[in-house]
Amino acid sequence: xxxxxxxxxxVAIKICGATAGAILALIYLQPKTMAEFVTRSAFSVISxxxxxxxxxxWLKWPATTNYEIASATLTALLSWFVMSAIxxxxxxxxxx
Length: 96
Known about the structure:
Layout: H1 4-28, H2 34-58, H3 65-93
């Protein structure tokens, strides 16, 4: 079991990295409405926090602070693009 202070620090690091990735994604592809801005921001940050550990392990990065931030940033940055690609694939396969 992880020490509570270590766990809080790890979650704070992931939130900071995911927020940076969400900001980068919003700069790269700017939202058209405020609702889209809120949805994309929340989706990117949540994806960055939840999936960053798996991305870091898949990329075989060590469990250091720098790589925790980088994996959360990368995951948040790519999450919106991956989700939109999946939605487009589902829409093309959907029967008419």
